[in-house]
Amino acid sequence: MAAISALTDLAALNNASAKVASFHVRLLYPQMIHYEYTERTTKKKKQGQYFSCRLVSKSPHSVEATLRGSTADLKAAELKYKHGANFLLKKISFDAKSSPCYIASNLKLCVDLKNTCVEACDDDTSIPASIGPRHGIKELLEISSRMAFDLVACCCQVGEPRDVDLKNGGTAQVCDVVFTDGSTKDTKDLSLTVGCWNPKLASEFRRCEGRIVSIMLLACIYTFFNFWSLHRSVGSKTVHFEGTEHGK
Prior knowledge:
By secondary structure, this protein is mainly beta. It folds into 2 domains: about 10-120, CATH 2.40.50.140; about 135-245, CATH 2.40.50.140. The protein has 5 helices and 15 strands. The protein has helices at about 15-20, 70-80, 135-140, 200-205, 230-240, and strands at about 25-40, 45-55, 60-65, 85-90, 110, 115-120, 145-160, 160-165, 170-180, 185, 190, 190-195, 210-225, 225-230, 240-245. A hairpin with a 2-residue loop joins strand 10 and strand 11 (about 190). It is globular.
C-alpha cells in the first residue's frame, strides 16, 4: 500500500497539477462500456469496448476515468479497479478520446488509467462512497446541447413504445420516460422527458417506474424544449443505475 502524505484534492486537478501532484481518490461505479463504430477504411460496423469508472476525493468533485486497450488489459482492469477501492494517482494522463459532452462529472476531464501511475492505498473514510447529482431538472431544462449528466429523480411515467421512422428506412421503437424531482418554475411543477431508444434501458426504467432512481452518466441529445433523446448507442454506452428506492 502506498503511503498517504501531502496529497492534493481533485478540486485542484488540471493539466499542470496532473504532472506534479498526487491525488488520493476513491473509485466508484466501474463498468465495461460496449459500443459500435464504423471503421474508416472499410466502412464496416465493428464492436468496441473500454473500462470506465468515476473517481472522487474529499471535496464534492469527481472526475471520470477510462482504460482502453487489449482484452487482457480490460480484464486486468476489472480485477484491479473495484467499486469503493482507494488509489493514489501520480503523473496523471488524460484520455483525449473522451468528448466533454459525454463527461458527466463536474470536472470536464477524463483520467487515462493505462498511462497514469496508479497505486492501491489505505482507505480514507472521509472520502465519500457515492456521488450526488450535479444538475436538477430545472437546470437541465435550460440546456440546449448534447451532454451527459447525473440525475436523481422520480421515474414517474414510462410510456408505451411508439414507432419512429428512421432516415435510412425501417422503424424503431421509442419509449418516452418522464422524470420529476420537485423542481418548480412560476409555481408550476417541472418535468424532464427523455425519449429512450434502447429497449433494454426502457425495460429498466419501466421496472423502476414510481421510484426514485439515481442514474450516473445519462447521456442525451437535446431535440426540442423539455425533451431529450436517449438513442441506442448513447444509452447502452453510458447509463449506469446506482440504485433505487421507493419514492414516498
